[in-house]
Amino acid sequence: MKTMKTLFGISAAFAVSLLATSALAQTYPERTITMVVPFSAGGPTDTVTRLVAESMSKDLGQQIVVENVGGAGGTLGAGRVASADADGYTLLLHHIGMATSATLYRKLAYDTLNAFEYVGLVTDVPMAIVARKDLEPTDLKGLIEYMKANKDTVTVANAGIGAASHLCGMMLMSALQTQFVTVPYKGTGPAMTDLLGGQVDVMCDQTTNTTKQIQGGTIKAYAVTSPARLGNLPDIPTAEEAGLPGFQVGIWHGIYAPKGTPAEVTERLSKSLQLALKDPNVVARFAELGTVPSAEAEATPAALKAKLEGEIARWKPVIEAAGQFAD
């Protein structure tokens, strides 16, 4: 009899839990949602986040406030969300650094694969290999020869460990099998400022950050890292075309929620994301930035989880070969 009462108690508790979850899913969201960007305001990921957040807010009927929590290559912001209440009111929009930080950082405050629930992929931004406008080489083959010949003095800027430009720089060193002098900055803005001013030589960064400067002729572009040329930069060859076979680097972005967030809530967010990525304003603004929204099939929890797992495995040997770790 005691066993029956225990079983009944467990069943009743489970039923109450199901009802609470169902009620949350039906009423969610009831208040403002915070979407954390783990980088500074005004950067490429921040730009993408604000466009998507604005569109999702319209569908969800509640405002999504973007909060910039920069530092430690995005791990501070990710850690903030990992420790937040699992109620769907604190989200994270992070780029490929979510995958690379699992190897880059010897100590993380969270388990990358197991500290989050997944909402969906947002976009995959190509990179551009650029340089100060007065650098001598006129094409990518010439740039490669120049960098190899001057490997001890040529400077490659990045926005700090874990930033997209840092990752692309490591991939470039791996592809060329040559180490260069890397110059880390505290953000994309200062790195670009010094490239524009000629204080550094080369950078590989997202087209969301380089397109305007390329179009304005204030920096020199050698290649984009996408499979095909970009519509807004039609004269810039792909790295494959320009003499760097197989060099394709995309800085994908995804939305996450704290572990334990009800599946009904993450599914609601995923549906809202899918609608946002079809929003004509989002599509048009993404095109201006040199990227496209993720397809509906990619803006799902399952697709983002699979992407993260695959990218952790892909980047691990690249990072280990570069030997650029952070504590």
UniProtKB/TrEMBL annotation:
Family matches, as Pfam families: TctC
tRNA-binding keyword on record: no
Keywords: Signal
Extent of the signal sequence: 1-25
Keyword Zinc assigned: no
Family: Belongs to the UPF0065 (bug) family.
Name listed for the protein in its UniProt record: Tripartite tricarboxylate transporter substrate binding protein BugD
Organism: Shinella kummerowiae
